[in-house]
Structures
1.
Amino acid sequence: MTATTDLEDMISRIALGDRKAFAGLYAATSAKLFGVSLRVLNNRAEAEDALQEVYVKVWNAADRYQVNGLSPMTWLITITRNHAIDRLRARRNASGELDEAAELADLSPGPEALVIAKSEAGRIAGCLGQLDPEKSDAVRRAYMEGETYAELAVRYAQPLNTIRTWLRRSLLKLKECLSS
Amino acid sequence: MTPEAQKEDDHALAAEYALGLLTPPEARAFEARMNRDPVLRAYYVIWAEDLASLTNGIAPVSPPPAVLKAIETRLFASEKQGFLSWLGLIPALVGGLIAATLVYFVTSFGLLTTPDEPLYVAQIAAEDQSLIVLAAYDAATETLAIERTKGAAAAGRVLQLWLIAGDNPPVSLGVLPDAATAELTLTAEVIAALDGGTLAISDEPPGGSTTGAPTGAVLAVGAVTLL
């Protein structure tokens, strides 16, 4: 893994239009971001398209990186995750008003996902483990699958406001654990 | 809301924003607040960092080489666009009217070298601006493009172009033709000496200097600039 300061240096040079720095950042980070893109989209062609879009965004937004306060890997992962989630949501909306929850529940990991599936590491995993399984599951689904409150409400057969209240409470508990 | 409850609400809101659970109007309102409030931004940053660590267990997968090619094509392939954005740098480097004329010259000459290649330019001008010649080196063809924009050789005389590199004696690049534009092919030695060199034009008899050095008055000089 390339050092944080090296990544920051590359991003600041990209902001000045340095193509070599861009190639360097791509070499250092594209496998990780492609892994994330594949994990969210579970479709190789779409994950490749998403990765293209992500790096185009990185090139165009590099000059605004300094002000956002995120570490470089978090910035890159966030751009990737958010873009992949946008695609995933568009795909779900395009599929119409099916019983989405049931459909999603049946979505078993394909071969790609099996290769890359691993349990999450780090303290957030430990803290998620302290929540009710249903609630930690909902947080993971919101982050990795981009499920909305409406989708979670269907999945857990609860009114939307109830879902929102219990997910917010779960997030605050998670924060308490993370900051302890 | 008590300050404590407000703080909790903000933490939850930051998490919802990071997860993309807010409606578009809610998300925009949160962003507007975050841009004014560094504390709220810090809440978001902490959430973004923690949530990103959910991807720690995702193994890297090397994308196929075609992806990088496609990205670079999208960002850089439009040679014209790249060239134009790169031309935008010229004023910062040269400044003022000279920059404007050089940009015009390089553009009109169609010197569409890729921005990766060094482009040397010079405005070779007489002190009183009675003679102005623009020069640009095109790495793709190893030629020096010349355009005389003002003045001309005196009757029965010619203009000869020289490169002066460091303390070395001037090296002739050739006699300028009567036409306003010309392309001079450069030798490898001359190309190597362009960086930091000076171009000069001297007044010479027809056919140019026979001594290998300028024999007439030096009419105009200009430093070679790397763009």
2.
Amino acid sequence: MKIEKILFVCLVLVLVPLNIAFAHKVIIFAWVEDGMIYSQSSFGSKRKAKNCAIKVENEKGFIIHKGLTDQEGNHSFKIPKNIDSDLVLTLVAGTGHQAQWKISIDEIVAKSSDKDIPTIMGKKENLEKSPSILKILTGIAMIFILAMAAKFFKKGKTLK
Amino acid sequence: MHISEGVLSGPVLATGAVFALAGTYIGLKKIDYDRIVHVAILASAFFVASLIHVNIGPASVHLILNGIVGLLLGFAAIPAILTALLLQAVFFQYGGLTTLGVNVVVMAVPAVLAHYLFLPLLGKSSTLTFTAGFLAGLFSILFSSILLGLALWFTNQNFFETSLAIITAYIPVMIIEGIVTGFCVAFLLKVYPEIIPVKKK
């Protein structure tokens, strides 16, 4: 019984500091969507990391973006042009509290190409600039077939 | 000039479809048996014209040629433009099937008006023929861009600035289209006058 009490006290002593430590743990999570990078930051699972600095660096350590989180701990920014490496987002939430999230270049390229409006417009423009000759000829042939059909029907009506 | 799918509201699309159907019916009724081949030639020219891009500075524009189609065909321009737009939508994803009616109204109504406004000027003198062709081309694009702006404005009145921007963006196309139509009409009058209804009389 005595041993059990000692174990229980030890467990409490271990868990209480651990819980406090978790309360101060800073978390940042980021993702790519519609040509933007979105991030959410918090202390643990409940407290939002408000007005905390966020810096974004490329692989060489150059800072490509800086900003502050809003009242909900969110921060977003447009993906700068000519990104050619992974990006690391660092959340600085006061002395000693820092968290990082890495976004791979593959994710940036893949998501941007699906949703980014300039990319879509560029694709559309290329599509329009290089129409298939076969399709053009088919279209013209169809117009003349329709015209011949119209002529046939008109002729029928005229004969009646 | 082609309005894509998902931009316009249901009532605007429905109104466009009704007007396009009515216009096509009148156009088919009015097509002269002997001029069906001309309708096919001009529909083919309209079908291909949108695929030819011209670079003006950083922008890329394409010809529309609804002015010359309307000038030479009158009401028959409506089924011609409908056919060409339908094929463009199917083959090249220009515009769309739900917006076909609105696109037909946007491009064919100014074309028919150009026929009644400028056809009487053709053949009187070479200068007047070129001027009539130029004005037909310019007027068709101007009026088409206004109709396009109105379609957007009726969908959402916040599109007013977009509508103005569209009309402004088409100013170079109006001038190019005017020059192309002017030269085409003057050339056709010399080498193939049968295609111009005024000459037939």
3.
Amino acid sequence: MKVPPYALSLRVADAGRTKVRLWLPMFIVWPLLLALGLLAVIAALLVDLVFLVTARRPRYTAFVVGCLGLAGEARGTEVFVNKESQTVVLTIR
Amino acid sequence: MNPERLRILDLLATGKITAEEADRLLDALKPRPGAPNPDENPSQTAPTGLPKFMYVKVISVAGDNVNVKIPLSLVRAGLKLTSLIPPQAMDQINKSMSEHGMSIDLSNLKGEDVEDLITALREMEINVDAKNGDNIRVYCA
């Protein structure tokens, strides 16, 4: 699993002039996300335990861990949209 | 020597592929025009020389442009995640997808297929030139 995104930047420009420039420090919410992630993993483990008892294939823990891993892989994503004079650039770092 | 080039030559030597097929594969290894040059920015390419990103570029004659750069590792993780979706949720996803015209059974996607799919994606290049002059390009680099 990789380090989750530490920043998200958004830039909205109109006719070459930047109207909105946002830099969201994602690392500030890391502790909160870690706590939520741990809760989700614990809940999934409990569900899988019930599934094991009822002889069904446990998959929820793997799915939750996969979702957390997916967030880490999003780093490097860039979206650039230009329509007429408006431009929107979104970058996940 | 590049490990991919070596592998292709090895396949040719063992007779698993023909000289024509080897030529085509070697051609596919050559850098594409317009693709970022790994020498210019080594951080953009994995140490093995394999593509790291998938690019989707839409250029319309009306002047609307879309340029999306997605890490291939994100594509891989997303595809692998589909094989981990619990069956209860999978039925609903498949039903919803078929309602929207995508009759794909995601439960058929296995972990080993994902690796093959990613390998195939790396060699994929889609070029669409619409009648109205719009151009769509999907490639990995």
4.
Amino acid sequence: MNMIMPGNDTNVRLCDSEPQTQQQTQPDTLAVNDQAAKDTTEFMNDITPHPSDADAIDFLNKWLSLSETQRKAMTIVMSEIDLVSDLMESNISDISRKFQELALHSQAQSDQVSQLADAAQNVQYNGQSIDLSEIIQTIDNHMTSMIGKVVDTSKHGVQVVYALDDVTKDVEKVEALIGQIEAINKQTGLLALNARIEAARAGDAGKGFAVVAHEVQELAQSVNTMAKTMREEVSRVADGVRTGHTQIKQVANIDLTQNILVKDTIRDLMDCILQQNNTYSKALRSSEEVSKDITKDIYGVITRLQFQDRAKQRLENINGTLQVMEQSILSFATETQTSFEAGLDGMSREDDWFKSVIQDLTLGEMRERFLKAVFDEDGGDSAQTSAAPTPGSSSSIDDDDDDDIELF
Amino acid sequence: MQDSISTSNGSVTITIADKLTFEDHDNFRSLLKVIESEENNSCTINLKDLNTIDSAGLGMLMIAFEAAEKTGTSFQIHQPDGQVKRLLEISEFDKVMTIVS
């Protein structure tokens, strides 16, 4: 602070060249000057010209003005520190709350993903939860059983064809037998006719024989009618058998191998589904783990945010220290004023250095508070704040700066 | 269907080649008679040259097995290949009869 305080050169003039005069007008002054000052004064007396009383009063006034300005600055620094502390507390508790919500959402997400991963492995069927691999096994079993039946049906089909082949041949034999019966019967009829002719030739002696021959002829006709009926019946049976034979051949001829081989296709598809499902499940499980990690990280952040408590305590301590410093400056100023009852009005305003200090404040709002606290000036006085723009910052964009920070 | 039969010391080997479908059921029946013959105590069906089989063919193989079983003849299927082998596997013939690769 000394480096930028104007009138540094007056340090030298602090050492009064006429100590007697000063002692007379303000007898208590020397009492409060510390020993070191006296030593310096004595030393300086030897090497510098002695300043006048007026110079000394002017210089003390500067001191008082400086301490006044410093006190005010300290007060506003303390209130700024309070402001920062409050700002930090409210914002960090806000952030902390948001993070709590975030952690809860992340936890919920993790749970949902976990449920999803469980659900991906199971299928709901008839109110039961069935594992996908179990379903595939069930389908496989059904397919195997169905294929077994296909083979069994094909076997029976061929067996029925074989049986009907036999029946067809048997029916043909029966038809041939009926033909033989008809042939024999025809001969019997002819035989009976011949017998009647011979009986007629024999006259009265052959009358009895003629009756027998007539009976035989009638019998042959009856057998003939029967054989005819049999032929008709057997023919109907043969037609039925042949139709059945043709039908069963058509059935047995249906190739079901593609239906058997479809088991392979279904199995492959099921394996694909299972594999895809496993991929999904793995991805979901990994996503669940990530969500858990995020939740853990968020809780870590919340824990770390508790630094605000410690920072607040430190700021309070800094404020305490500043308060003590302010008090000591005040008591020193009071003491100086009571020691030099007359001539000191503290009116020597050393404003420029302070203004150059606050020029570095990038927050216009804060700058205004400083100016108001120290000079009781309206902060809108931009001519003062921008009087000496600091390198790297332009006063013309001060308001923009504010806006930028507000946006953050 | 092309088939050949060889017999030695009570065991008969029937080789079925090309294809075995429903159309071959008549010819296959004559093979069944060989299998059912009391003279044989073991029967081997060699399918190494069989390229095609349909469901009726599978049924006929099953009938052949049952025919052998009825007469107490041991029954084996040898060297099925390709589509025939796959169909026998899917139909789980190996659970019913002996299949030698």
